[in-house]
Amino acid sequence: MTAPPTTSARYRDVFGVQEFRTLFSLQTLQVGGDSIRTIALSVQAFERTGSPVAAALVFAAGMLPYVVGGALLLSLADRVPARRLLTGYHLLRLAVTAVLALGGLPLPLVMALLVVAGLFAPVGGATVQARLPALLPGDGYVLGRSLFTMTSAGAQIAGQAAGGLLLSVLTPSGTLWLATASAALATALARFRLPDVPAAARPASTGMAAETWRTNGRLLRARGTRGLLLAGWLPISLSVGSEGLAVPYAGRLGDPDAAGLLLSAAAAGMFAGNLVVGRWIRPGLRERLTLPLAALTGAPLLLFAFEPGLPVACALMAAGTSGLGYELAVQRRLVDAVPEEIRGQAIGLYGSGLMTGQAAGIAAAGALGESLSPAHVIALCGAAALAASLALARHLR
C-alpha cells in the first residue's frame, strides 16, 4: 500500500482543477435533479392512485436496479472515455425525465423508465470517481472525495426540499420539466466542459457483462482488495440499520414526527465527520484514526439499550455517523491497491456493494424490530458494526 501523503490538501487546490469543478457540478446537478424528479413522481403517483405503496415504489424504482447495473455494466467505466460515457448517461437522464414530464404514462411504464436510468447510475458514478485520483494527487483525492460525499448529501436534502416547495406552486409535471432542464444542463457540461481523455488501456474482453463479472471476481478473490471492500461495506451497512428504526423509536418516545430530528442528526454527523476528517486531520493521523473512527460508527449506538430521550438519542446518532469519515482512508487505500485499468470498476463495485449492504442492513433491522424493541435493535446494530470493525482491524489500521 502506498504511504499516505504528508501534507493536507486545501479546498482551493481541488477547486483549482477545471475538470474537478466540472465533475463536481455534474454530481450536484444529478443528485439535486434526481431528488426533485423522485419527489414529484411520488406525489404524482399518490395523487393518481391514492396508494402509499405506489408512491413508495416510485420512490425506490431508481435505486432497485443499482445492484444489477453494478453486476453487469461496471466494466464500461474503464472501457469508454469519461466524456463520452457521462454525456451519454446524462442524455439518458434527460430523455427519461422529459418523457416523464410529458405525463399520461401508466405507472408500470413510469417505473420501467426509472429502472432503465437506474441501471446506468453505478456506471456514471464509477466513471466520475475513477477520474479523481488522476486529477487530485496525494491528499487532494481524499479532500475531493469528502467534498463529493458532503455535497451529495446536501444536494439530496436541498433537492427534496426544493421539490416540496416547487410542488406547492407548480404541478408535478411542471416540477418535472425543471428536473429535465437540470439534466439538459448536465448533458451540456459533460459534452463541452470535460476533456476528451481516452479510456485506460485494458485487454480485450469477450463482452461487457462477462468482463464485469471477471473483474469483480478478481477484486473479491484478492485478499487485500477483498479486505478493503469488506472494511468499507460492513461497519456502514450494519450501523445504518439504526436509521431504519428512527420512526418506531420516536414513536416509543411518544412523538413519531421526531424521527425527522433523529435522521437530521445522523445526516449532520456524517457531514461533520467528512468535513473534519477530509480537511482538518493530517493524512498520517487520518490513517491511524481509521480503526477508531470505524468503531465509532457502532459504539455510541450501544447506549440506545438504555432508551435515551430525544436530545441524547440525537447526539448519539450524530456521534455514530461522524465516524463514517473512516471511509475516506479506506477508499484511498483501495484506489492505491488496484491497477489503473480497473480502477473505475473497483470504485463502482465498492459503491454497489455499499448500497446493497445498506439496503440489507435496514431490512434486517426492520425484521428484528418485529420481535424486539426499537432501542434494543439499534443497540444490536451498534454492536454488530463494532464487532465488524474489530474483526477487520488489520485492514483498518
Keyword list:
Growth Hormone, Chain: A, 0% strand, 2 domains, 397 residues, mainly alpha, 22 helices, 78% helix, single chain
What is the CATH architecture annotation of the largest domain? Up-down Bundle
| Average pLDDT metric | 87
- Tell me the CATH superfamily of the largest domain: MFS general substrate transporter like domains
SSE-based structural type: mainly alpha
| Number of domains as seen in the coordinates | 2
Succession of helices and strands: HHHHHHHHHHHHHHHHHHHHHH
Gross morphology is globular
Oligomer: single chain
Task: Describe the protein in words.
The protein is mainly alpha-helical and 397 residues long. It has two domains: 9-199, MFS general substrate transporter like domains (Growth Hormone, Chain: A); 207-397, Up-down Bundle (Growth Hormone, Chain: A). Helices cover 78% and strands 0% of the residues. It has 22 helices and no strands. The chain has helices spanning 11-15, 18-49, 52-61, 66-72, 76-79, 82-102, 107-119, 121-135, 140-169, 172-193, 208-221, 223-239, 241-244, 246-252, 259-280, 283-288, 290-296, 310-322, 326-337, 343-368, 374-391, 393-396. The longest helix has 32 residues, at 18-49.
What is the fold's blueprint, element by element?
Blueprint: H1 11-15, H2 18-49, H3 52-61, H4 66-72, H5 76-79, H6 82-102, H7 107-119, H8 121-135, H9 140-169, H10 172-193, H11 208-221, H12 223-239, H13 241-244, H14 246-252, H15 259-280, H16 283-288, H17 290-296, H18 310-322, H19 326-337, H20 343-368, H21 374-391, H22 393-396
Helix pairs in contact: 2-3, 2-8, 2-9, 2-10, 3-7, 4-20, 6-7, 6-8, 6-10, 8-9, 8-20, 9-15, 9-19, 12-19, 12-20, 12-21, 14-15, 15-18, 17-19, 17-21
